[in-house]
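In full, the data:

***
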Amino acid sequence: MLLYQPALLGCAQIRFFEAKTQVDCPRDLSLLTAIDAGPVAVDWKNSSEAGFGVDELEREPVEGALFAPAPAAAAKVKNYATWNRELVAWLYATQTLELLKSPSSGETSRAGESERDFRVRLQQAGRETRDGSVEKLRKTYAPKMATLQEKIRRAEQMAEREREQASQQKLQAALSVGTTLLGAFLGRKVISAGSLGRASTAARAGSRTWKEMQDVARAGETVEALKQQLSDMEAEFTAEVQALESAASPATEVLDRVSVKLKKTNIAVRLIALCWTPHWQDAQGNIQPAV
């Protein structure tokens, strides 16, 4: 047998809002609670989700159904205003929105978003942020590296010129020394002004050769110093990129739990009304909800 049992229906819209965490989550609640005959007729802490909204209420019962009598408290109009205030107070005291927060990024999960989905979203955002940071680093280092590479190119050209000049100077010095020695080997016993001049020229050529070799060494040291600077800069860039990539992973980091409180100004009661809900009553008088 279908039996309609009286209950108090409370329908409200609540809104969790917090600018800091960028949370804006409205919810519709429909609650059913019994109306007792005792001193406290209605206690919202004993309520349960109705499972339907205001727009789903039926105005006509099933034909042939029976109705249990309405409680005495439900006949007093002023009680509904009291129950309205009590519903607001109960919602304010009990309703919170539990969210997850990433300590590394400061990002907060969305209402209804699972931990898995939140971590996936964090990973995607992390990759985009990391790629952007790496690109920014690359743009910072690229001109510096290009400048060093150009200095290395010019220094290598200079070193090559110094080597060519040193090679030519070696050849000239060798020719000067060879001419002087040839004169000595041919048996010139008298030191003439010419032979002295040639010896002096050979000495000067040797001195210039030594100077050219020093220039070559210095040019080589400059090239190596610049190459070392470039190598150090590349290592520094690589280390910074690795630091970005090894930051806390959203897949493994411990997430914080935050609660968004409900403000009374964000509670709107749409309906407080007496309603009858369908139940089945068997031959033994046992009653069970029909839905």
Summary: The longest strand covers residues 2-18. The two ends are 14 Å apart (CA to CA).
